[in-house]
Amino acid sequence: GLSPRNVSTVSDLFKLTRYIHDNQNQIFEISEKSKMELARHAWFNNNNLARQENYLGGKSGYTDEARKTGIALWNVPITETPEGRNIAVIVLRSSDRFRDTMALVNYTKQNIFYGDKDRALSFVPIEKRLEPAFKNWVDLAFVGDIMLDREVKKSVERYFNGDYNALFKNVVDDLTEADIVFGNLVGPISDQGMDSKNLYSFRMDPKALPSLAAAGFDALSVANNHINDWGKPAFDDTLRRLKEANIMPVGGGVDFKETEAPRIIEKNGVQIGFLGFSDVGPELLEASDNRSGILLASNPRFEEIIQNASNLVDVLVVSFNFGVEYEKVTDRQKELAHKAIDAGAKIVAGTRPHVIQDVEEYEDGLILYSLGNFIFDQAFSKETMQGVLAQVRVDKSGIKKHAEKIIKLNDFFQPQSPVELKQ
Fold first, then answer.
1. What is the bridge-based pairing of β-strands 373-375 and 365-368?
2. Per-residue pLDDT tens for 351-388?
3. Cβ neighbours for 291, distance < 8 A, ≥ 6 positions apart
4. How wide is the angle at C-alpha 153 spanned by C-alphas 152 and 158, nearest 5°?
5. Bridging pattern class, strands 67-76 and 219-221
6. 418 DSSP 8-state letter
7. For the CA atoms of the chain, what is the radius of gyration?
8. For residue 29, is pLDDT > 80?
């Protein structure tokens, strides 16, 4: 339940799981599916465990007190018989329910065997037995602009029966392989507000939010020039919906204090912080002491904000919505990116130009000036129908390695499998 006084132990939850499995197993059969349809409605499963082999269903939850929780049933090959053995994995107070669950499942596969003792040693390959159960680094994935309105929305409705999961089907494995996935949400995701009647105004259907979560997104920047397209009610609603979906809104908050504080995700003992700035407005949505809004790069405390954030984490990521659409890197982009690294950032992730721009190694940091389009309906050129998947491995000391791959969009605005980027 939602009351913080409703406390259960792992033992309690295991007994409940076994009772449901033995007496009402159709509940697990339904929750195993990625999609459930009746005559007039369809439900989409936002639990990314549902894509894993041998997953038998389960339930996930979140409250501020309990953090991320989950019950998951699995069939694992840890017996001599082909049918394997069913196990339940229960996690409480997790910061990453998916990866904690998968770590426990994989540990079980590698270290437990029901059968003859002599055969047990040969059952699991020696290289698997030697793999560490836990790691001390974090793999980050960065993609560019995400816009799920306009022609993208029409494509989902026309060709995929309203299922936004279909947009991500070719890249979900690449995204969920990372420990943390970050992108730029170009506009509000809400059913509230009034159209500001900009030249281009975007507002994305909240039905798309579970698909973003299921695709692996942990954090999305909201500090961009389209986030106010449907006014402040839609912006505030977007913040609320992202938090409820366990996706951190970066660069925006309920007041300036929340906005300038880094969003921190801890994985494998490494603390990763995220800040987001917009260099192209909208100025009227700038956060204040008692007003929600976004963080602007023109803030006179720009470098101080970054330095303060870097002191709180091992690795700080600063995202910028900056530059000129469809053009090369500007002097202003270089200035802001270099200042961010000098102030303590390790990674700068840029968006807004809608085309891929340069990658620069500066001091001990990495600058991705523009990641291009991840999902967008700008089909007028091949340059705007592609973006970068940047894969960066970090540990407490900083960046260990990085690689950039190109992701191209097809005619349905689905990102295709990434390929190595030729510099």
1. unpaired
2. 999 999 999 999 999 999 999 999 999 999 999 999 99
3. 255, 256
4. 100
5. unpaired
6. P
7. 22
8. yes
C-alpha pair distances (Å), 328 with each of 12, 256, 334, 399: 58, 32, 11, 26
| 281 alpha-carbon distance from chain centroid | 24
Helix, strand or coil, per DSSP, at residue 378: coil
Contact between 13 and 60 under an 8 Å Cβ cutoff? The reply is no
Q: Where are the beta strands (DSSP E) in 53-154?
A: 55-63, 67-76, 85-94, 138-146
Q: Which amino acid is at 235?
A: F
**Which residue type does 405 have?**
K
Look at residue 68 in the predicted model and tell me its pLDDT: 83
Phi and psi angles of residue 277, each rounded to the nearest 5 degrees, phi first: -125, 145
Distance CA 241, CA 253 (A): 12
d(C-alpha 307, C-alpha 223), whole Å: 19
The predicted pLDDT at position 118 comes to 67
Report residue 316's pLDDT band, with 50, 70 and 90 as the boundaries. very high
Residues 6+ apart with CB under 8 A from 292: 232, 235, 236, 239, 252, 253, 254, 255
- What does the chain come to in residues? 423
Q: Identify which of 266, 286, 202 has the alpha carbon closest to the alpha carbon of residue 238.
A: 202
Query: What's residue 1's pLDDT?
Result: 53
What digits encode the pLDDT tens for the residues 317-364? Answer: 999 999 999 999 999 999 999 999 999 999 999 999 999 999 999 999
